[in-house]
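Anyone else keep sequences and structure tokens together like this?

Example one:
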Amino acid sequence: MSIEFETPKPIAQIQFVLKTVAENMMRSQSRAFDENEHEIPYSYIEFMHNAMRSIGGGSLAPKEEKPAKEGDEKKEKRPPIGYQNLAAQIEMLSWGDVGFYLITPGGGLGAAAVQSAGSAEQRAKFLARFSEEKPTFAAMAMTEAGAGSDTSAIRTRAVLDEATQEWVINGEKIFVTGGDKSFKEYEQFGKGFVVVWASIDPTAGRAGMRAFVVESGTKGVTIAKLEHKLGIRASDTATIALVDARVPYDNILGSPTVEKTTTGFKGAMATFDMTRPLVAASGIGVARAAVEYVKEQLAEQGVQIRYGLPRQKMTAIERDVIEMEIQLRSAWLLVLKAVWMADNKKPNALESSMSKVKAGDVVTKITQKAVEIMGPLGYSREFLLEKWFRDAKITDIYEGTGQINRLVVARQILGYSGKELR
């Protein structure tokens, strides 16, 4: 069995299209929407919705494999590339502007939760929305004021009303990426949803955790606050309050009963196993933008990187740039391994967290070094490099901080449980 590192043709074709979008629609508006946080670039959203419908089915989410038809066994079976394709798209869009990528219409983390923990009927019902006429968004709400990285400490509660067969949810979620566009009813957008994690039995600990699809416009749910942030300012980050919010019985993802063998919490972790490499891919897109900018600026000053020389014969800048490229490439290879495993339905908890840890480190260090090398040019708001520096840090924070993912990696390698290694 040979190993190929050439980008598959379907992925390369989409990358070519998205690079044009990144250069002409994202980069040109990056500064304006960074300076005017919470303004919505409707023209970009509408364009990308129509584009993704035509080239990707309407959603930044992997597509389910179609059932085999009679006679298909005679055809050469293509290897699955859904998550690999998605990682490549996200890397390219984030190279354009990571804040804009985060407001690209599609399923996002909310759709990933439905994909990982939902039934076939739920996937058909909720994921189909991203191919409809209006742009649609979805988000996932897990973090709480008293439950950040320790997701098992979630206090949001869901209780079944036996009379109406509805779930009644109470709690508050913070730092919900894309929460405003996913829940608030905008005339320009379709009916989105937020996947809210809550406990149906606090005495059961993690076994009592479940995810609920809370659709836009649900009574008792409000956008309580929009954060003002260091980076990714084109993307909204919301606080969502739920007060006696009523959700249909069938909107629970997973079993409504709690047993010792229940895997409700594992549904959340399965979601992260799929999405952490995608967050890593996003960070790598930002890092690549910084590396390319530095090399372009150096080339304009007549500074060429002399590859192949012994390190002691290189200049300090040459060594810095080559080290940046080495770290960028190694991070991308970790992402490729994690998404390949996801596509081939192989357990990838270790590889997923490793890619997230590496990318979080790499994008932070690369953008910092790029600002350092460029000096005043890197620090000036006239150029995008200082913005990429600010955008970079979120890679190390959301969907599990670098510290938490290091714990996951250590537990996986050493065979310890969460209780044994904290």
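And example two:
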Amino acid sequence: MRIRRSLVALVLFWMILFTQLQASDQPNIVIILTDDQGYADVSYNPHSPPEVSTPNIDALAQSSMICTQGYTSGHVCSPTRAGLMTGRYQQRFGVYTAGEGGSGVPLDEVFIPQRLKPAGYVSGAVGKWHLGLTEEYHAMNRGFDEFYGFMGRGAHPYFDHSDMDHPIYRGLEPIKEEGYLTTRITEEAVDFIDRHQKDPFFLYVAYNAVHAPPEAPEEDIKNVTGDETRDTLMAMIKHLDIGVGQIVGALKSHQIFENTLLIFLTDNGGSRAMHANHEPHRGFKQMDYEGGIHVPFIVSWPDHLEGGNHCDVPMWSIDLFATVLDAAGLPMPKDKPLDGKSILPALRGEVDQLHEELYWSSAGANGKWAIRSGQWKLVAERERLELFDLQSDLREIHNLAEKHPDILAELKGKYYQWLSQMADPVSGQQKIWDPSSKAPAKKRSREEKKAQRAKEREAK
């Protein structure tokens, strides 16, 4: 009997020890998502103008994998966030614009922290949510254990937090807040790391910097370019860069940086109104040219990825869902189509392609869409179709639509076939495109269009 008890105790001991060892091997996961930051508004980019200085982001890039072909799935804020959190084309559930995503992602869509929770992860969201304005869409009702930030309204003030119609929240409760918002988001992120250093954690840091309005501490705004808006943007980027440095510093101080998968990217291209710089790309936010969707994209995981390298495989924000599950050793969900793929094999040099095509569509609002297939990219707005060879024309200057009608027709056909599988932007359910047609299968009513415009106004 004693021997049997001893064996049982020994087995339990090893089971507990094995479980603890497994937990200790689980990586921490940090996603830093900036807002409207131009491709050249990081100084590790060789195209950056002299006024740009991001020493902390540069240091992270130099020790990480720089993803030179990193994209977002939307050219505005909320659609990208919806795709990132679900690992699915946001159009599958009717999110084409900031108005639709900002009003709320359907509650049957499963977010990253909901997948991580069974594996023992504690999850925190800090900053801009923009995935629903009411309580049922709140971050803490989508799997996050902690939340500090604001629910919607992309153009949230940085200093004045007195508007309690659009308050700062801690958890589910609105609070009165003071301080420069970029700094406060950083402080909350660092505090989360300090408190959960011994847990496997997922931290989603969604800065609203450097989205409009152009606001920064006055002492940091220097007359560098002679352009007041651009100079203010540089001061905003300075505080964003300081924040990235402090988050990395917190991970290192607790000796958990090496086993942390840290992904830095921005949610879409920078704004023309904020005088962002996208060199060498054409266009800005709200466009499907490279300047609207091709973004700074950095991946760090020192224990598993060799830093100081580039990855030239096209990838995008939708891939982060699968990447996080892959890093955590969790299975991919089978209940709904998962459109993203883990980028880890590409970062390790094991594959040279993740997707045959990448698709963008805000067709529910203004008919803008694009498809990239290999070196070819088709950009469309209503009746205008432009075909570019990105291998020889990264600036998207030379429209080759007339020269290569066969490629144009092929990509157009693929886009309409893809769109036939997506949902209606109003109902979130009905299919709106007939793949054999050049036009929508049905027109939206005046009431539906009015409701859509109201959503978009609220999101701005």
